[in-house]
Design goal:
The protein is α+β, with helices and mostly antiparallel strands. The chain contains 2 helices and 6 strands; from the N terminus they run αββββαββ.
Length: about 140
């Protein structure tokens, strides 16, 4: 009896959640999680060679079930968004890419991971234009 009560208590204390990997396998532009960006020769560009010309922004929801064991969303390829937003801004790449993930309101109804669960993902970055070097995009 004590074991059953302990098992139920642990299940109720468990977290639900979702899982999704962010990829950009078809991006025409370089993407950096820091403020560093490499030029065509592979060397890091100097700060004065990079000029912010816009902000990259993309949001989506993830869905999963059974404590992230079943992922309905899967990988999220942001290549098309990167390519379009960088092109529209006249940029050459994205720096300081940040991915934030958090729970959505639905989480309180998931009944300890048995019902589907959702999450919010926000991706932001700085679109930069490079000067003093030939283009760095692999267009």
């Amino acid at each position: 009896m004590k074991t059953a009560i302990l098992a139920v208590a642990l299940a109720l204390a468990a977290c639900s959640g979702t899982r999704s990997y962010v990829v950009a396998s078809a991006s025409k532009y370089p993407i950096s999680l820091s403020d560093g960006l490499r030029g065509p020769d592979g060397a890091l560009l100097r700060p004065e060679q990079k000029h912010v010309v816009g902000e990259f922004s993309y949001n989506y929801k993830t869905w999963g079930m059974f404590w992230t064991m079943i992922a309905f969303t899967g990988d999220k390829d942001i290549s098309a968004e990167i390519n379009q937003q960088v092109k529209d801004a006249g940029g050459d790449g994205v720096t300081n890419l940040t991915v934030w993930a958090g729970a959505c309101t639905w989480n309180v109804f998931t009944v300890v991971g048995v019902l589907p669960d959702c999450g919010n993902v926000e991706i932001t970055g700085e679109i930069v234009k490079v000067s003093g070097t030939s283009t760095i995009a692999n267009r």
